[in-house]
Amino acid sequence: MAPEVFRREEYTESVDVYSYSMVVYHIILGRPPWAGSSELDAVTKAAIDGERPFIPRYIDERLSTLLKRCWDENPRARPSFEEIIIWLNKYSHDVFKSDDKEVERYKQTDRGPHRHHHNHTQIQTNEKKCGCSIS
Question: Domain range for residue 40?
């Protein structure tokens, strides 16, 4: 939960960017921010005390910078998702040596970013095919 939500202040979609940073942190480090703390303690640390999770030195400096920008105390200082996507594309090109042709091929597959445009009926159909359920 973004600090401004907990403090019941006005907020924008930048709260989603804050949440995104916490999810990315969890994925990168394999543990939630403030592991071992209750949810209330974690949100209090962020919203009241102004703390942010510790980022170990072995984390790529570029990823560390992105996380810090996304969880900035000032919501207006957080990047938009459009900026994050541009940044991640550049990072991908730098780190994985991917080129634009690879990105375009990915976009043409079912794994590409256009998949969220499917309607609910298609999702239900796919759900039945794989035996999974969406709650």
Answer: 3-98
Alpha-carbon span 50 to 34, nearest angstrom: 13
What CATH number is attached to the domain comprising 42? 1.10.510.10
Structure tokens at 95: 């780190």
Alpha-carbon gap, residue 90 to 14, rounded angstroms: 22
Spatial separation of the C-alpha atoms in residues 130 and 126, rounded to whole Å: 6
Instruction: Provide the domain count of the chain.
Output: 1
| Cα–Cα distance measured from residue 87 to residue 84, given in angstroms and rounded to the nearest whole number | 5
Q: pLDDT tens digit string along 58-89?
A: 999 999 999 999 999 999 999 999 999 999 99
The alpha-helical segments, DSSP class H, found in 2-80 are: 3-6, 14-29, 39-47, 61-70
Core vs surface per residue 54-68: b (16+ CB within 10 A) or e: ebeeeeeeebbebbe
Is 27 inside a domain boundary? yes
